[in-house]
Amino acid sequence: MSAPRPAFSRRDFLRYSGTLSAAAAISTTISACGGPASTGSAGSGGNKDLVTVVIGYGNDQSWDPSMTASAFTMAANNHIYEGLVDTDPITRAPYAALATALPADTSATSWKFALRQGATWHDGKPVTVEDVLFSFDRVMDPSTLASSFFTSWLKEVRKVDDNTVELVFKFPFPDALPRLTIAKIMPKHVFGAPGGWDAAKNGKAVGSGPYKMTAHNPKSNTEFEAYSGYNGPRRPAIKKMNWLSIVDASARVAKISGGSAEAQIADNVPYANIDQLRKQGLTVEGGKGMNHMFLMFNTAQKPFDDVRVRQALFYAIDTKKMIDVALKGHGTPASSFLNQQNPAYARAKTVYDYNPDKAKSLLAAAGVKNLSVTLMAVNVSWISDCLPTIANSWNAIGVKTSLQPQDTSALFTKMDQSQSYQVVAAASNPNQFGLDADLILRYNFTSGGTWMKYTKWDKSSDAKALFALMDKATREPDKQKKLALTHQYIDVIAEQAVLYPVVHTELMTAWDPKKLTGVRAQAYPGVTLLQAKRI
């Protein structure tokens, strides 16, 4: 194992993460691959080698796969890097990537993987077992974001021979198979060098996957080309890609619409523009998944330490109006922390259907009168559209509400600095990492984790009981018993309402079917073009 690294700070998390907001904008200081590249219309003319992509998220967060939750970066890294095992971006079915085969027995307490012969890094050097050990050493480091997805079940990764590694588990954990895609294998000779992880954070990317990065310009664009040395299972059909980072919704739509359209595909399409784009001949499809708006309470501030107050504010929200007006019908009221399409979904025992009378009675039972709430929020466009409904709903039950939408980095920097807050509304989508309930819930509910520290709740007896129940579910080998325990702790999370979704939404992707084929819309931010072709 390498020498200990500095602890992963809350400020670092938000610097490296784009999950919360399409509008997060913390500039990096270097361009990884030279000067600015063209973001113009090369892809809109006769150059069929190039696909221009519009991503509605910033490309200036961390590019270190073990540290990032950035929508842009994670989508790009899935084209650049490989895990031992990767998953289909839509079905999430696992397949052997850098490994030659999937384990025969996923209930075993150790899995052996032989590496794909002839696999090379984008600089031409061979992929080795030492690179795998180096990468898992990084993933298991508690200072990394990825560690929360591995340390509960993975004991160690060791070398078997010059071409084989063995993953040793603390207990049988079949759900580890799709989760291995999070552990992107990285070259030790590049990122193990002095300053290597800083370079990764700032945009240096050297993988073994289908595409290599050829230019990176923070707040502007990132360019890729097919790697000629790639010999893996998903060979690219597109020769070059230029991904434009355009957070502004109107500018993003302009790039893919009209006679002067420069892009062939865009993610994060605003609901208000769907019909317009379809009339112009574009295909617009959605993916329903975890993407949600959540409320998070500071339980160190009264009266938000009282569960009845938290519940009251959820019951008071007219979610149907929010979905009809703000989301144009592309949303579902949360009936569990998980979305209804998740394999582990079950309706929670506590569901916050619109019930203003119940909200008033809960506030009265808690002895709360004349409550004033400042709702801080990220300034993501669809979140901002939802805020008036919340304010009107809370005002209607006698809770005077002030709205404070603001830049994501500014908002969470205040919380990093322990500045006071009451309630926060933000967006999140743990499906970027995977689908299993254990992974999704541990993203938010981990003792000592970022989110629990923000809520000031994780040292409470209720939180400790929740964490113990989650650990019990993780270790349970029987599938049905595990599912029952999972539903039990999801019920606890729903009842406590410390950090909980209001609505789950549908993410929309648009593309030109006359120029692209093989595209599949995904239910989490970004795009996948590993099986697409330029027509």
Question: Topology, pairings included?
Answer:
Layout: H1 10-16, E1 50-55, H2 71-80, E2 85-87, E3 94-96, E4 110-114, H3 129-139, E5 154-161, E6 164-169, H4 176-179, H5 188-191, H6 196-201, E7 211-217, E8 221-226, E9 240-245, H7 249-256, E10 265-266, H8 274-279, E11 283-297, H9 307-315, H10 319-326, E12 331-333, H11 356-365, E13 372-378, H12 381-396, E14 400-406, H13 408-416, E15 423-428, H14 437-444, H15 450-455, H16 461-475, H17 479-496, E16 499-511, E17 516-517, E18 533-534
Parallel strand pairs: 1-9, 1-10, 13-14, 13-15
Antiparallel strand pairs: 2-3, 4-6, 5-6, 7-8, 8-9, 10-16, 11-15, 11-16, 12-16, 17-18
Protein name: ABC transporter substrate-binding protein
InterPro entries: Peptide/Ni-bd (IPR030678), SBP_5 (IPR039424), SBP_5_dom (IPR000914), TAT_signal (IPR006311)
Pfam family, one: SBP_bac_5
